[in-house]
Specification:
Layout (H helix, E strand, L loop, with lengths): L4 E7 L6 H12 L6 E6 L6 E5 L17 E6 L4 H13 L2 H4 L6 E12 L7 E12 L6 H10 L1 H14 L3 E6 L1
Antiparallel strand pairs: 1-6, 1-7, 2-3, 2-4, 4-5, 5-6
Amino acid sequence: MSVITECWLINDECLTNFDKVLIELPALLGLGAGSEIYAATGDEGDSEFIAEGIEFSPTEGILPYFQAGSILTVFDDFAGITGTVERIIEKELPAETKGDILLDRFFLTVGLRQLQIEEAPDVFLEHTLGLCFWGYSTPPDCPEFELRLCNSVLFQQMKTELEKLCGPLRAVMRFG
């Protein structure tokens, strides 16, 4: 049985409004003083701590922290969007589908990165923007949970709002 569940929204296309996304995304996601920022060049395992407790400027967002060719990761378990996902799961998924699942943790990645697909370990999804909601729990029926969550009305509404800024987002679930 899985012990971690991840729900990713990724943009695997070229962002045409990259600076605008980096400026406006913190406010859209509800990132705040609970954020920790890390940067990596090349291998993600070599991340360097950049800052924490940041109040993001509405005119700069995370833009000042990003360097071309790097992967910027912003952790914020208190981001407003985390509560949105928790409410979606609570309101739209039946108890027998969600079990004790709690996706109460969040991080954002910016920069060219690869996400391994659980069903095909040799397949990686390359993307430049990733939003990850995750938790230390798993639903009783992973495929049914994925189907119901990703197709729920409120999840689709949230995704549509994010896509207005971020472009097309692909939902990817990982259980492991």
